[in-house]
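Q: what sequence does this backbone want?
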């Protein structure tokens, strides 16, 4: 006991000496591990139930080393549990298609999710807008639920479909999409590549339809009336004309090589599904056009102005009609730039007041009688040729009308008013022709409709 007291006195003396000289020395005190044994155990939060539980064992009953090992084991168990859950979540995501590029199913139909940086949509849309690509690759681009449904109902073959949500895909007939590649993309991506102000979230690539293999719903309501579009170069006009032709129940529509592509996106939007309601045959020469018409057809041309050959009946209805000198430039229904390879010229050395007069001097135009649009002209299978507003009719169109004993169909308008829009004039002529043909069919039967088909 005496020895213990002496040691404690010495220790106190040493500490006082150190405190006295603290300003001159750097003191390094040893760690006291004894205090660590007296601390309370660390609380562990278990990830399974998230409750706060304190181990039953305390420092008084377990050594310090065993307590540290128990804490490490609990931490390792929690980490392993989180890893197992992460692996399970990853496998479930891959299985359900939540990982980019993996496959999924909607109502039994498998589709793909576009992965990050997927450029298929932009690449396909950009090339499908090219007429060269459409003609060489035989593919067309359709956008919107109604247009795609019309194409599927008519028997068109889908190749690739981009959609933004499962609800958009379910709006389409899923049984007709089994052979197509379905890709789910973000709506923002479709909005970037869409031409519409309010995109519907679905874009499709189809094989270019073959009119001979399509199932047109309006076939039973058609009349023996064909429409020939000559040099229609405005997409909006052509789309509206096709829509009028489908509404009037035309048998088919023939497009010359000077027309805008019928499968251009602007034409498709203006036509409102007319491409899938009647046969449309594009890029035809005049020899090919004759082969697509029956032998007994009568071809009429839409006249946009009056000339020196106006009949007395037309003259009575147009009191203010003026009679000008006969030359090719006076005929609004003939192109101001005819095809020189098909023109018949006469030698003439006379000078004219303008270059245009000199260009058409001596032109032998076909003689085609004029007739008002509401007069009788559609009494047998007929065809109507409508020219573009800029180029007008080709000389070959007028020659074909002369060959088949057709007429120049004239729509009278009030003086000092420009000619009608080509789409408006087409609608007037087609519905008048339909009315006349239906009237004849009711009295004489449907024999030429069968021959026309």
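A:
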């Amino acid at each position: 006991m005496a020895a213990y007291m002496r040691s404690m006195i010495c220790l106190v003396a040493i500490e006082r000496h150190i405190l006295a000289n603290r300003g001159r020395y750097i003191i390094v005190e040893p760690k006291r591990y004894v205090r660590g044994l007296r601390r309370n155990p660390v609380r562990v939060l278990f990830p399974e139930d998230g409750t706060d539980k304190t181990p039953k064992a305390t420092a008084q009953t377990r050594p310090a080393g065993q307590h540290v090992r128990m804490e490490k084991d609990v931490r390792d168990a929690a980490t392993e549990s989180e890893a197992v859950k992460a692996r399970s979540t990853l496998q479930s995501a891959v299985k359900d298609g939540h990982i980019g590029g993996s496959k999924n199913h909607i109502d039994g139909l498998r589709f793909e999710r576009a992965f990050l940086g997927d450029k298929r949509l932009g690449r396909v849309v950009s090339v499908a807008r090219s007429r060269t690509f459409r003609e060489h690759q035989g593919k067309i681009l359709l956008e919107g639920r109604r247009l795609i449904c019309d194409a599927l109902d008519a028997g068109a073959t889908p190749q690739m479909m981009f959609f933004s949500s499962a609800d958009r895909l379910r709006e389409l007939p899923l049984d007709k999409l089994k052979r197509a590649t379905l890709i789910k993309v973000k709506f923002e991506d479709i909005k970037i590549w869409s031409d519409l102000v309010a995109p519907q979230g679905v874009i499709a690539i189809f094989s270019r339809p073959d009119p001979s293999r399509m199932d047109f719903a309006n076939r039973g309501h058609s009349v023996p009336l064909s429409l020939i579009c000559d040099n229609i170069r405005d997409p909006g006009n052509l789309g509206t004309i096709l829509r009028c032709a489908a509404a009037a129940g035309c048998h088919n529509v023939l497009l010359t090589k000077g027309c805008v592509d019928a499968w251009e996106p602007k034409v498709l939007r203006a036509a409102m599904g007319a491409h899938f309601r009647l046969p449309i045959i594009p890029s035809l020469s005049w020899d090919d056009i004759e082969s697509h018409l029956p032998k007994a057809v009568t071809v009429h041309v839409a006249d946009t102005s009056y000339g020196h050959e106006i009949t007395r009946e037309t003259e009575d209805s147009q009191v203010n009609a003026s009679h000008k000198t006969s030359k090719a430039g006076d005929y609004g229904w003939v192109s101001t730039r005819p095809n020189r390879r098909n023109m018949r010229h006469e030698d003439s050395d006379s000078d004219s007041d303008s270059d245009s007069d000199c260009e058409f001097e001596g032109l032998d135009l076909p003689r085609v009688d004029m007739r008002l649009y509401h007069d009788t002209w559609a009494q047998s299978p007929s065809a109507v040729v409508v020219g573009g507003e800029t180029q007008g009719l080709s000389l070959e169109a007028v020659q074909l009308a002369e060959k088949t004993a057709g007429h120049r169909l004239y729509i009278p308008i009030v003086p000092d008013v420009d000619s009608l829009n080509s789409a408006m004039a087409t609608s007037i002529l087609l519905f008048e022709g339909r009315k006349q043909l239906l009237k004849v069919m009711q009295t004489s039967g449907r024999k030429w409709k069968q021959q026309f088909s």
